[in-house]
Amino acid sequence: MKKLLCPVCKSELHRSGNSFRCQSGHCFDIAKEGYVNLITGSKSGNLTGDNKDMARSRKAFLDKGYFHSLADALCKIISDIQPETVLDICCGEGYYAQAITQKHNCAVYGFDLSKEMIRLAAKRKSKAEFFVANMADIPIADNSIDCAIHLFAPFCEKEFLRVIKPGGYLISVCPGAKHLWEMKAALYEKPYENEENSPDLPGFSLEKAINAVSYITLTDNNDIESLFKMTPYYYHTSAQDKAKLLSLDKLTTCVDFYIRIYRKD
Ligand SMILES: C[S@@+](CC[C@H](N)C(=O)[O-])C[C@H]1O[C@@H](n2cnc3c(N)ncnc32)[C@H](O)[C@@H]1O
Ligand SMILES: [Zn+2]
User: Which is deepest, 26, 108, 155, 188, by most CB within 10 Å?
Assistant: First the structure.
């Protein structure tokens, strides 16, 4: 992995056997699954990212291909851009990073704050390389990434701007207006559409905003629950409303991904 920085002293890390080391002697072992944890004890505090249950549930759901339309849309954008390096920011359990490596020859790196997400990502044995890190302090050199992808995750525009090369791309995805509309209609009497925003990001220009829209049918109650758990609604819905959705054996719902393509000036 090129351009990886020591989280302690910010000098470059180099691979040496089963570890990454910097010139000041800081050393980070590579886990048996192949990832490296670059969160240092003192800085991690209570920050852990998504837990084991969320990680497993996300993997189980994505591995069934329900969101392949987003993976396809990303691969299409990447084939237009032709980057040499792709960084998957808050990559989760590595589904999209794997999809990109299967279709493209670019170097793909992914990181997430959650060790469990990264463990699952590394276990996919794709050509992508993974590390545990906080997006508020990305251990990657300035101006070193051609294209960063950022899917359904918190934002840290200052760090995204720093690591992306001038002229490089930031592809940021959030739920589109109709995303999971039928799921929301099963939960709530009066569902609302998601707001679609393309905020101004200093140092970037918005090149394009597109929606990738399709329908998926879930025929397994466990899949409905897994999808529900991936949404914020799971944590803000009454037990009574939850029960309405979880009693269904089948659900056809819209998946609407709002994809914004920014270019660094
Ligand atoms: C909704 S999940 C999306 C995961 C993946 N991008 C996907 O679409 O499958 C959000 C991810 O952001 C990670 N995350 C949250 N805060 C983070 C931070 N400060 N730095 C890095 N990752 C973070 C969580 O651990 C979780 O894996
Ligand atoms: Zn160091």
Answer: 108
